[in-house]
Design brief:
434 Repressor (Amino-terminal Domain), about 80 residues
Length: about 80
């Protein structure tokens, strides 16, 4: 499961890079992430969190991190009471 999530995330970063018509070298320069790290991420789906955040900022996707682990809304009063 973690590998599938990482692969999907790498695919979305690659797709966004291509939408922006950026080469890997251009995105690496723009983000401050080494070209090797970016290539490894797109190929092997491995990247440091700090580098992923830099890529997100360079691709104007940093707001997507706000949804990660955010507090979810309640579907019922029971859920509110159960949280206490």
């Amino acid at each position: 499961m973690p590998e599938e999530i990482a692969a999907a995330l790498a695919g979305r970063v690659r797709a966004r890079r291509k939408e922006r018509r950026l080469t890997q070298a251009q995105l690496a320069r723009k983000s401050g992430v080494s070209l090797g790290s970016l290539k490894r991420f797109e190929r092997e789906h491995q990247i440091a969190l700090a580098s992923l955040i830099k890529l997100a900022i360079a691709l104007d996707c940093e707001a997507d991190f706000a949804a990660l682990f955010s507090k979810r809304g309640y579907a019922s009063i029971r859920e509110v009471l159960d949280e206490r």
